[in-house]
Amino acid sequence: MSNKFIVSLTFIIFLVIVGGLLWLAIQSDNAVSALLSFTAGLSMIFLPCTLPLAFVIIPIAAKEQKQGRALGIAVAFGLGLSVTLALYGIVTAFLGDYFGLDQFTRVMFVVAGAMALIFALTELKLLQIPLPIFTHRIPNWITGGYGKTFLLGMFLGNAGIGCPNPAFYVLLTYIASTGSLVTGGWLGLVHGLGRATPLIFLVLLTILGIKSIQWMGKASAKIHILTGVGLVLAGAFILTYGLFGMHWWEDSIFHASWNRSVYNIAPNLAEQPGHPVAEGVWEAPSWVGWWSLIIFMLIPFIWYKLRHGVKNKVFWIVSAFLILLGLSASAGLIEVEHGHGIEVEQEQL
Q1: What span, in angstroms and rounded, lies between the C-alpha atoms of 248 and 241?
Q2: φ and ψ at residue 122, rounded to 5 degrees
Q3: What is the 3-state secondary structure (H, E, C) of 117-150?
Q4: 205-213 contacts, C-beta under 8 A, 24 or more apart
Q5: How far is it, in rounded angstroms, from Cα 299 to Cα 149?
Q6: Is 249 exposed, middle or buried, given 0-12, 13-18 or 19+ CB atoms closer than 10 A?
Q7: Does the N-terminal or the C-terminal CB of the chain have fewer CB atoms within 10 Å?
Q8: N-to-C CA span, the chain
Q9: Which residues pair with 113 in a beta bridge?
Q10: In angstroms, rounded to a whole number, what is the distance separating the alpha carbons of residues 78 and 215?
Q11: 3-state class (DSSP) for residue 293
Q12: Mean pLDDT, range 64-81, rounded to an integer
């Protein structure tokens, strides 16, 4: 695959992203259409619930020495993500009510988070999962990079379901009102493709930034570590989401600051003010959610240090930061009122 093709494809996707976001930003009625579904997907890259996906797929694609295969890995991940969103669309239409997704969503988040952490442990060479005895009969696309990445995309396609921006919320409400499985699946698939497009764009930029295959060979071990760390972060976040809901994150100063910044730039791209916050399997105070996130991250990091060893300075800095974050959460220092909306700012204006 030539650099000229990669450059051309990158430029085309860049135009699609910019044009789509500009179109979404100037919309006032948010009439539901395939275009709204796609552009809403594009805008999800700015939300803190979905941005971590970029830190998962980029290192995975960067491991590939061939440009065509790296692009294929990104596309497989995006297709897996899109299939999950299509399934959500179908379930939403079937239930006829967005809030009826709660129990289904909780289970999916727990499964997705656990699977992401398992993928992370395999990338960090902390866990080896033996394949079935008939592995030689399983097609290579399943056991190889494409199939594995497609399944990973399906599991991580849950990210962002519970933190919708206005267009996504309108989309789900419309699908629920139609009761059409075809409409729900189609719009969900298109929305998933929209979410996947910026991720593929970032992978293309990464491909263009790779100057030497020899450099990739030397950096292979580091890329495996980055992939594992990215999966640990995403898996811990999603698993905590499923277990304890999203109040701990959406009512935090981090989420509030991020959403306020996006709102000040383009209100149509920010999260829906006062939107329903997903509940988890168990109800718990915000500090429980934060400590859950921290523990799910610390366990693989400590395990990695004991098994392979890391620079003590890096390990202790990361550990100290996470523990300080947990203590701050316990003291209520990072919790703010209405962190998932911009109602406070509107009232002050």
Answers
A1: 9
A2: -70, -35
A3: HHHHHHHCCCCCCCCCCCHHHCCHHHHCHHHHHH
A4: 205/10, 206/58, 206/61, 206/62, 206/70, 207/6, 207/61, 207/67, 207/70, 207/71, 208/3, 208/6, 208/7, 208/10, 210/62, 210/67, 213/65
A5: 24
A6: buried
A7: C
A8: 54
A9: none
A10: 27
A11: helix
A12: 87
92-142 per-position pLDDT tens digit: 787 755 445 556 666 667 776 787 788 778 777 787 655 443 333 434 444
Query: How big is the CA angle at 35 (ends 31 and 39), to the nearest 5 degrees?
Result: 100
Q: 234-256, pLDDT tens digit by residue?
A: 788 878 888 888 788 888 888 88
| H or E element, residue 35 | helix 34-43
**Is there a contact between 44 and 20 (Cβ–Cβ < 8 Å)?**
no
With a CB cutoff of 8 Å and minimum separation 6, the contacts of 349 are none
**What is the Cα 283 distance to its own chain's centre?**
23
Stated pTM of the model: 0.61
Domain positions in the chain:
3-234+263-269
The CA distances from residue 65 to 69, 73, 291, in Å, are 8, 12, 39
Token pair of 101, please? Answer: 């997704």
Q: Answer yes or no: are the C-beta atoms of 307 and 265 closer than 8 Å.
A: no
CA atoms of 169 and 188, how far apart (whole Å) = 12
